[in-house]
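Moderator note: this is an archived Q&A kept for reference. The question asked for a predicted structure of one protein chain; the sequence and the answer are reproduced below.
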Amino acid sequence: MSTPEIETDSLVRTYIKIRAKRKAIKTAYEEEDTDLKGKLRMVENELLRRANEQKLTALPTDSGVAYRSEDKHVSIADPDAFKEFLEDAEDPYLFFEQRPALGRVLEYQNAHDGNIPPGIQMFREFRMRVRATKKKGAVDDGSDD
């Protein structure tokens, strides 16, 4: 006994329905994820406010600990000054990614008494990270987006 062959049009319709369903699920996920990230950021900002107010770098609780961390960002503040600096640099391409290379700028800063290259500005962003207290059998996924 042979299995009846499914018509090509039916396969195409099925494929289109599955693709549309995947797109709908992905869109719903992305919308909810964006909302949840915003809520996490609001809680993080409140934790940072409290830590700053209390002059603390960590807020330990029974559930876990919120601790302050620093992210650094660089951008070109004065393109002309930075261009002039690059003309004299031994290997100017070390300073580039799609933005000035943070690692290379930090290396330069360490080697030059805390100064950053001309034409660069550095931004510091303090954030609160949260790590759950490990309980027997519980797992903290460890992610902190």
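Archived answer notes: Residues 8-56 form one domain.
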